[in-house]
Amino acid sequence: MSDVRRLLPKTRLLTLTGAGGVGKTRLARRVAPSVRGWFPDGVEFVELATLEDGELLEPAVAASLGLSDTRWHAMPGLTAYLMDKRLLLVLDNCEHLLQECADLVDGLLRAAPRLRILATSRQALGVSGEQVLKVPSLPVPDLADTVRGIARCDAVRLFVERAVNVRPGFVIDAANALTIAHVAQRLDGIPLAIELAAGRLRVVPVEQLVRELDERFQVPANGDRALLPRHQTLRATMDWSFALCSPDERQLWARLSMFPAGVDLETIEAVCGGDGIDRDDVYELVAGLADKSVLTVEHREPEVHYRMLETLRAYGREHMAAAEEQALSRRYRDHYRRLADRNGIDRMVPDQFQRFRTLQRELPNIRAALDLCFARPCDGPMGLEIASSLWGYWVVSGALNEGRHWLDRGLALVPEASTARMAALAADCEIAVHQGNLDAATPRLNEYRTLARQIGNESVIALGVQIEGEVALVSGQYRRGLALMDEALARHRAIGDVNAVSRTLFQAAAFSSPEDPDRAKVYGEQLLALCETYGAPLYRPYALLVIGISTWRQGDWRRAEALMREALMPLRIVNDQWCLTHCVEVLAWTAGARGLHERAARLLGAADTLWQGIDSSPTELRYTMSSHQRCDEHARQALPAQAYTRAFRSGTKLKLDRAVAYALQDQEH
Question: Beta partners for 120?
Answer without folding.
Answer: 16
